């Protein structure tokens, strides 16, 4: 894609031009799957597409330096055996502390800082920005809208809800609160929920979902932990990703 600048009546705008994606979006695929005799993707299919989604997040977080905040099946386009993340309208640039900030012990109690599990340094969090994104994929800390949040951890959560829908063929919760029964069981009793639905997943898939769906973002899997997870180490056949 590319960007152009234009303006109407003196107001500048930024236009994002993306290539045409003939495969539609992931939401359409999941909707069709939910109505089929065997809803959900096979693990090889889900792994093929989800690996690309996670790789896209890795590029956004580490190369572009932004978090998406509105990742959802509607914002994942499919084309030529590739998935593309779109709709950057809610992206935020990930704030980082300077080296001097990291060496300063006077502000250890600053609520806008936390310890980065990945590399042991502090990184600055976002102040609450209001509930944003789509409710069935929204992270609980965004739904609560009370505390500073880690944009990267928010994207990990939303990615997990997408993987959940891909593997189970079921919809996600209606809102990220324990009063929502499906949210409760997804976060507190996932194996039992899968058993009740008759969904059989490998232990690695269940562990990945549980690690990414930790309600406490400080306990949630990091992007590196997801990329290096055993579930991604499986060597699938080259045509296992084909969606029919």
TrEMBL record:
Pfam families: Pkinase (PF00069)
Superkingdom classification of source: Eukaryota
SUPFAM superfamilies hit by this protein: Protein kinase-like (PK-like)
GO molecular function, one term: protein serine/threonine kinase activity
Key word 4Fe-4S present: no
Acidic residues compositional bias, start-end: 100-110
Region feature (Disordered): 97-123
Domain Protein kinase: 1-232
PROSITE patterns: PROTEIN_KINASE_DOM, PROTEIN_KINASE_TYR
Record flagged with keyword Phosphoprotein: no
Alphabetic keyword roster: ATP-binding, Nucleotide-binding
GO cellular component entries: cytoplasm
InterPro entries: Kinase-like_dom_sf (IPR011009), Prot_kinase_dom (IPR000719), Tyr_kinase_AS (IPR008266)
One Gene Ontology biological process: intracellular signal transduction
Protein name: Protein kinase domain-containing protein
Organism of this sequence: Grammatophora oceanica
């Amino acid at each position: 894609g590319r960007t152009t600048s234009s303006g109407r009546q003196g107001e500048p705008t930024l236009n994002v031009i993306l290539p045409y994606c003939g495969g539609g979006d992931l939401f359409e695929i999941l909707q069709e799957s939910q109505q089929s005799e065997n809803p959900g993707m096979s693990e090889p299919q889900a792994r093929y597409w989800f690996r690309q989604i996670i790789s896209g997040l890795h590029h956004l977080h580490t190369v572009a330096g932004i978090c998406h905040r509105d990742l959802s099946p509607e914002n994942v386009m499919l084309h030529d055996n590739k998935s593309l993340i779109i709709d950057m309208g809610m992206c935020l640039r990930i704030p980082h502390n300077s080296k001097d900030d990291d060496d300063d012990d006077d502000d250890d109690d600053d609520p806008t800082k936390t310890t980065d599990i990945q590399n042991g340094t502090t990184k600055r969090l976002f102040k609450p920005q209001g509930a944003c994104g789509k409710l069935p994929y929204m992270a609980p800390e965004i739904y609560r809208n009370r505390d500073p949040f880690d944009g990267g951890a928010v994207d990990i959560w939303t990615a997990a809800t997408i993987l959940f829908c891909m593997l189970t063929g079921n919809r996600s919760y209606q809102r990220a609160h324990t009063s929502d029964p499906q949210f409760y069981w997804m976060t507190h009793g996932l194996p039992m929920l899968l058993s009740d639905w008759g969904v059989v997943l490998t232990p690695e898939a269940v562990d990945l979902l549980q690690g990414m769906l930790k309600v406490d973002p400080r306990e949630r899997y990091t992007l590196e932990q997801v990329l290096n997870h055993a579930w991604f180490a499986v060597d699938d056949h080259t045509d296992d990703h084909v969606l029919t």
